[in-house]
Design a protein that fits this description.
heterodimer; A: mainly beta; Proliferating Cell Nuclear Antigen; nine-stranded antiparallel sheet; five-stranded antiparallel sheet; 4 helices; B: mainly alpha; Rossmann fold; Zinc Finger, Delta Prime, domain 3; five-stranded parallel sheet; four-stranded parallel sheet; 50 helices; 53% helix; Replication factor C subunit 1 (chain B); DNA clamp unloader activity (chain B); nucleotide-binding (chain B)
Amino acid sequence: MFEAKLQQGGLLKKILESVKDLVVDGLWDCDGAAITLQGMDSSHVALVEMLLRAEAFEHYRCDRNVTLGMNHNHLSKILKCANNDDIVILKAADQNPDSCSLILESKNGEKTSDFVVSLVRIDTDQLGIPETEYSAHVKMSSGEFQRICRDLSQFGDAVQITCSKQDVKFSSSGETGKANITLTHSATVDKEEESVTVDLKEPVDLTFALRFLNLFTKATPISDTVTLSLSQEAPLVVEYKIGDSGHIRYFLAPKIQEDEENE
Amino acid sequence: MNSFFRQQQDIRSFFTRKKGSNVKRKWPEEEEEDDDFQTTKKKPAKKKSKKGGVIFDSDSDSDVEIVSVSKAKGSSKSNGSVSKKTSPYMSKTPAKKKEIDAASFFGASPVQRSNKKVNNGSSKPKAVKVENPRLEIEDHSDDDFQKTLEMLDKQSVPTKTSFASKLSEKMQTSKVLVPQTPEVTPQRRSPRKRVQQAETSPLKTKKTKAVARSQKTRPEIKKEIIRYSPRKTSARSTPEKPKGDSSTPKKANKRGSPFSSKVSPKSPGEGHNNEGSPPDTAEKKRGGPAYRSYLQREGPRCLGSRELPKGEEACLDGLSFVLTGVLEYFDKGELKTHIESLGGAVRASVSKKTSYLVIGREPGESKTQKAQEMKVKMLDEVSLYDLISSRPGKRKANTKKEPSPSKQRSNEKAGTTKQEPNYITPSKIDKGKFSWKPSLANSQLSDSQGSEFNSQESLGRQNSQDSKSSSGQPQASTQMWVDKYKPNNSKQIIGQQGDRSNAKKLTKWLQRWHDNNFGPHKDKARFNRDDGFTFKAALLSGPPGVGKTTTAQIVCKEVGFTYFELNASDARSKKTLQECVSEYLDNTVLGSFFSSKPKTKDQHSRHCLIMDEVDGMSGNEDRGGMQELIQLIKGSRVPVICICNDRSHPKIRSLCNHCFDLRFQRPRLPQIKAAMMSVAFKEGVKIAPALVDNMIMASNQDVRQVLHNMSMWSAGQRSDKMEETTQRDGKEQTVKKDLKMGPWDVLRQVFSSSEEISKMTFNDKVGLFFHDYSIAPLFVQENYPNVIPRKAGGDMKKHLDLLSKTADSIAFGDLVDKQIRSSMKWNLLPLQAVFASVLPGEYMRGHLGGMINFPSWLGKNSSRGKYHRILQELQTHMRMSAATSLQSINQEYLPRMREHLTNPLLSEGSDGVDDVVGVMNDYDLTREDFDNILELTQFSGFREPMKAVPPKVKAAFTRAFNKSSHLNPFSLDWGGKAKAKRGGGFEDAPGVEGDAQETQEEEEEDDEDDKALIAKLKGKTTSKKKEPAGKKGKGPAKGKGRAKGKK
């Protein structure tokens, strides 16, 4: 029997919004400690990994590990019926569940909505994500990041991220012209959320498709800050923390570099 | 009587009959056979209760046989046996009564006591000669096969025809005429057993026979007496089985195998009740009259009037029953199963352990006797039912199954399977019995019985293995052969082994792709090689089923590329391609980062795109897909492999300019054949090589198709009898892949003189015409002059002669066509086929000189219509001044007008404008008429006058013409556009133009239809036209242009 009660339904709504555009059918793995979701987009260029620990839930019970294959479209339709302050309860049977039920309770307890969503069978393999040491970590306000991506996509379809000691530069170029946005490492820390931290071991220079970054930034409502981790030979990691008890991580493979092709 | 029997036995014992014949064989036959068989019966198989009366073998069998015999009206034994054997499901119902008339019953032959002797005698030689050959076939452990063979032989034996005589024979020869059913059972099986053993001494057999009969009643505890149902017979066979499990298999097909009883003698172990013991013999002999009555008793009298008594689960646990006599309400087998399902055990003979003896009508003597001796409780039917309903139930005791050998019937209680396997296995191994496919769902275990269906051993063997392993699983879950034998590496691809094969080329191309396109030497590469290395994309084209997709995938794998495949199942419109694919082509992929092996930098970008079935990118889903693909290829950083079927499709033509063109040929027959034979071997299927050849040719060397055909064929084989195999072989010949050929291919075949084509029958040739009976004659007419006929042999005169004949034939064809279309006499189509296609083909057979042209008749026809219309218009316009017929205008006026209209312009330039305008006014011609006249009178080879006129003059002429107002004596709203323009030149210019435009448009519409594939643009007329609504031109450029215009 799997049952999880989440006090703020809004959180689930936001999580789903941030995932559903990238991954249509996701495998939600529920075990005793946390719910994880992993999925790749259709072209295998981007990967999203979500972890939500049991602490985030008011009540969490998982007798056996279940894997729920959910169609995110359906799920989001259901969650649209929920208010942000609703209580969301997820339930699923233990043995090979073929459907999962969601119960939404309004805050004052007067309205209860009950949904049953059929599960889908998904036959994808999960990728094992190794723990890598990244050469550069950039922490910034998530809103800022979202704006940067949006602005740059006016100019081109790819962004080149260059990290150096003190700053991080985002550039994009296209028919209309070029655009560069540079963020410098904040000297003073006025507001945690607004500061920019650049933590560098080696300079990094990579290009990424903006289309995916714009999809990633849909998770902005979840957290105030976003952390980008880069390394020359590794995909970009965009991480949004969910409170204290979880995170959403997006991985994006870099574009093929022009000069890298002298092979 | 006794002495007589003894005599018989002696004689028989001299013959060693090797093979067990098919016990199921017709009853009378078996009688003879059995005798012989018994000789060979092994000692161990003491139990063989084969007595002269096969009769006992299966009550039901005999009964049914009787029935069938009678049905056959005393037809020969062989017939009867055949019919019996081949009817898949003999009716289970007991003793179906058939009408028998006296004559058939008693037959025409005189009644003689000695008949039987004669019979026996005759059977001996038969037996002898049949036996020996069988001996050699020993390695065939397929009993069914043996059976079949025997049956075939048997058929040649003349048999008595009358039912009565047969009966009497049986009666007389039967040693044990005891009504006990148990006896019957073993008999059936005996032949089988004998087969297996194949070497008994005659003497022994003699004895065994006698013994066997008596053995029937032997407390083969496992034996089940089932009357009236042939299937059940099988159950009986169990007894002798040392493993004791044989019965189980047999039982399996309670309902199922019609031949269960035949098969019963499967298990070698089953010592058929061939052993006899002298005392028993005596007993059995006694049963003469009783036996007769046993045979003739009826079935349940009130069948169906009661429902099976419902008892609680396992209420009969621990109880064992013996059923004897005829039950009134149920079929014995049914009841037996029911009892078993309730946890009870039904045994074949009475012993101390028997809890109850259930007595029906006309019970067997020995059973009742025994019961009395052993103080077994006797119940009648109704009491039994009461017992069942009243007993308290218990936990299900599945284990019950084990001890009861006859529990083949896989009851719904799961787990039987698990318990049973040990039963099955030994029998299987011993006999090499082959399990039938799980079509008999219940009888997964009934393998040994299932094998009845098999005539092909090898098939069966395989099946049995499968079913063993997947106990309880339907074998249908095995993969399709095409998946099972899918190539995993490039060595396994059929037809791609050579150095210059497409697979090799593709591999090289892929390996060098990065260097060629992005490396430092990329420019150099372009110059060095022409073999496609400069392309960013590759196009694999070819007929279906030759290995294109497989090659692409395997090559990618081998070179170390991951690939992303899009095929006809995906939406590949411009938009979706942009979304999904464009990023892919520029990006690295995550998979490479997260794999276990550490990768070097350059390996990160090792991925490619496979666009499969690219010629399917059409329609709404894929709108704009092809163009988008081409754009993507141009800018791609990643190799793209496109796969299509039809290289000459217009859409593909534009694509292949950007692609490395790899054409896949159909693999050759030896290549496919080799692979297929190995597949057949792996599957354990025996297929004649000639048959494989046929299949390959029939499928047009499409490997996938051949594999499918083979798997279908082999699946069918498993249910066929041997005899039918040959028929099937013949049938295979007729299995042809029906190809829809395009008119070009049809034409090639019509005129081709290659080997295969010349083998076409008349009907085949007529069939060619019918691929498209509307356009085929046109194609022939268009292209026949280009063919260089074989028959001419270079002789011009002969060539011309042939041409002339062909032309005549085509003309006749056209006449016929006219009749068909005008009077709807469609039954003349074949006649037209002959004239229009077959005869020309015959005359002009040879090789085609050039390209095959699309019939120009269609275009010309529409032009004709157009000109006719224009002419009419001109005639109307000119009516005031030249009131003549169309022909006259066309032939007399127009040529002169042409001169008058153009010469002034040519010679005098701007000064001549007035003259021309004057002429036009005289004849009330409009501006379009001017152009039309010029067009109508324009014949090929003549210069176009207006070309030579300087544009200045043209402009002047136009101005002058437009300036003057023209009062036309005719209205200008021709084609139904409601604008009625009267006179007035004020709006004439645009209005007239507009109208004319519109009218011309409609004409154009007609034209477009006809000019389908002809991309000729007819000068001015086409330029003005608007896109006719909804028309997608078939000409590629035109079509595309139009579509765009429309949008």
